[in-house]
Amino acid sequence: xxxxxxxxxxxxxxxxxxxxxxxxxxxxxxxxxxxxxxxxxxxxxxxxxxxxxxxxxxxxxxxxxxxxxxxxxxxxxxxxxxxxxxxxxxxxxxxxxxxxxxxxxxxxxxxxxxxxxxxxxxxxxxxxxxxxxxxxxxxxxxxxxxxxxxxxxxxxxxxxxxxxxxxxxxxxxxxxxxxxxxxxxxxxxxxxxxxxxxxxxxxxxxxxxxxxxxxxxxxxxxxxxxxxxxxxxxxxxxxxxxxxxxxxxxxxxxxxxxxxxxxxxxxxxxxxxxxxxxxxxxxxxxxxxxxxxxxxxxxxxxxxxxxxxxxxxxxxxxxxxxxxxxxxxxxxxxxxxxxxxxxxxxxxxxxxxxxxxxxxxxxxxxxxxxxxxxxxxxxxxxxxxxxxxxxxxxxxxxxxxxxxxxxxxxxxxxxxxxxxxxxxxxxxxxxxxxxxxxxxxxxxxxxxxxxxxxxxxxxxxxxxxxxxxxxxxxxxxxxxxxxxxxxxxxxxxxxxxxxxxxxxxxxxxxxxxxxxxxxxxxxxxxxxxxxxxxxxxxxxxxxxxxxxxxxxxxxxxxxxxxxxxxxxxxxxxxxxxxxxxxxxxxxxxxxxxxxxxxxxxxxxxxxxxxxxxxxxxxxxxxxxxxxxxxxxxxxxxxxxxxxxxxxxxxxxxxxxxxxxxxxxxxxxxxxxxxxxxxxxxxxxxxxxxxxxxxxxxxxxxxxxxxxxxxxxxxxxxxxxxxxxxxxxxxxxxxxxxxxxxxxxxxxxxxxxxxxxxxxxxxxxxxxxxxxxxxxxxxxxxxxxxxxxxxxxxxxxxxxxxxxxxxxxxxxxxxxxxxxxxxxxxxxxxxxxxxxxxxxxxxxxxxxxxxxxxxxxxxxxxxxxxxxxx
Length: 869
Description:
Layout: E1 3-4, H1 8-17, H2 23-44, E2 52-62, H3 69-76, E3 83-86, H4 90-99, E4 104-115, E5 118-127, E6 130-138, H5 142-152, H6 162-178, E7 185-192, E8 200-208, E9 214-221, H7 228-234, H8 254-270, E10 277-289, H9 294-305, E11 313-324, E12 330-337, H10 344-351, H11 361-368, H12 377-382, E13 390-399, E14 402-410, E15 416-423, H13 430-434, H14 447-460, E16 469-475, E17 480-486, E18 493-503, E19 506-518, E20 538-546, E21 551-560, E22 569-581, E23 593-606, E24 614-628, E25 638-652, E26 663-673, H15 676-679, H16 689-692, E27 699-712, E28 715-727, E29 741-743, E30 757-759, E31 777-792, E32 795-809, E33 821-832, E34 836-848, E35 855-864
Parallel strand pairs: 2-5, 6-8, 9-11, 12-14, 15-17, 29-30
Antiparallel strand pairs: 1-4, 2-3, 4-5, 7-8, 10-11, 13-14, 16-17, 18-19, 19-20, 20-21, 21-22, 22-23, 23-24, 24-25, 25-26, 26-27, 27-28, 28-31, 31-32, 32-33, 33-34, 34-35
């Protein structure tokens, strides 16, 4: 005879229903349970009224052969040798612990034998089945099934429970509801596997999606001030179906729908209707006959050609909104209390809200707390160290249609910056980032300095621009604030692999390496080469071009942005060499060539005036052109030397490098040679070209302008323009045959070794908008609309649409800035940390190319590192 202690389910039922049992029934029930327990006690000589201590002997496990016995015993909390009072709650607790594992259908604990003070136990278990496999059936495609599998997050070997099945069913239904299948039904069939001895089941998810349902109507009642169409426009995501809105689905998603309802109320609040609210809203699916019309009739006709049935009715979602607008309110008296730093009149002027203005909750919030232009009350205080500043607009009095506002200010004490730290920089040295920050320990806290510091970190290009987070921790007790800049490192090394058409029926290949966060001091440390030494913010670049036969070129460049480590003075130097011979036509004779050797050095610094967005650099560059037997060139044989003083002044306030949303970028670059012809007294009219161009003289100017405007959300308008001019000191001497401008195409370099500057203009062929001898003047104008597809730091992608125009002229006399070659098109940009910015554009040229009558038409262009700009 054995005593069963499997009272687990009875105890749970009893505890849940104790209050529902009537007193007399409860008494009889307790009496019955007590009698049963007393009878069982007499059998094994256990006294439930006087518990005795026993030692646990062997514990056997039955009914769960696939489980590890020691693990089951360990989970129960009872072990061999343990001393336990019987009866006690140890057994019910053990059953409860095993039950909560979720892998058992039944749990029983039996006392199988008692020898003296030793008790032997049996755990009789019934396990739930495990999943052998699962599959989908019904009207679900393979791609849909793959996406659903990712959401289910179940695997072979998982325990099959009712909770698991219900969770899977809900996830499947939610997936299809998000896709517009609101009538989706999912049935789960569990089938036992009889092919193995193990207790296993497989699941079949039978999906019936039903028809895809779109929002057909949004009906609005109770509105007078705002029309139905204006209210619908406020709903950002919930849109009713229209024939012309083909690019976006009219799906109903409840979370987005609720957000759109808030947007409607926000619109009313901003128009003065502070009491506006949604009285009621309902949504349901209805079936209606298909409307007749020209486009619908044409569509049904096309469908019939392909054997598809004509639709006579359609299921659609109907949304009914009932609004209460209330009356329009106006600001009346705005008063200030608690302000000592600034006068009430000054604060009212900065608030820019006057008596009689329409009540606008959003405007009040923006002018008080945060205006992107920095003209708000909070910025005034926070930029002057008042970190603990608070202002609470309080409606003091509402009378008829007027509202009195009291601005309650708590200024607090000025806070000074305590510690400034950096986290998340796994490769970059701390000092490389810290030297860029505007927030310095000991100085007064300034919100503007924090924002500017974020921008400076973004400009480094070493971190994910979307995840730079300043963690500000104020300490009111001592009036300090600690700032931790949290960053996420991205790759700052790029590999350039390029193949393109180089002319003469051959291809040109490019291999390049750019390290934007190089560490020169670690070059001789073998452990730092992983694969390159990084972390000090220096830039180094290597590049090789060749067609494998008669053309090759190579370049090297290095930049130290903080020369000496104390001030932002950038030292840059580099060299390059290009060579091309005539072996394409004369494979046995390479005595025809054109080569260029060049080197440069420059020193740049940041300026503090007119503001600290300005930079200035100057340097010296040298180029030597070597020509031999190149009959098509202006100087068939000889050398030309080009020594020029270079300078550049610019201002860059864009908010980030990869996808700028705001700011501007302006630069003026100049190169000036010595005016030899004005001082050497030689008669250039009698010289041959070899002597005339032995020492080149010219001056060259390049102006670049770019503005970025955040229109709405992440939609950005980019407006850019470029101007270039190549001048001469002596009118008796022709313009330099080198360094001329060539307009058109993608702006990528080719074979030409005359120092030409290629200016891209999409929709036309490379250099097709300039004559053979190049131009000395050009202009270019670009307008782009950009929208990001993803801003993931490993692969940022954005699409764009553009309009461009530009032209070039042989000399300034023919300059006509409004006579342009025009084009328009679309494109895509992909930024990958290893390869930099890659682009593909399709442009359509509206005008004939230079010297021709045929329109350019559509052309594809590939761009590297913003060569299109």
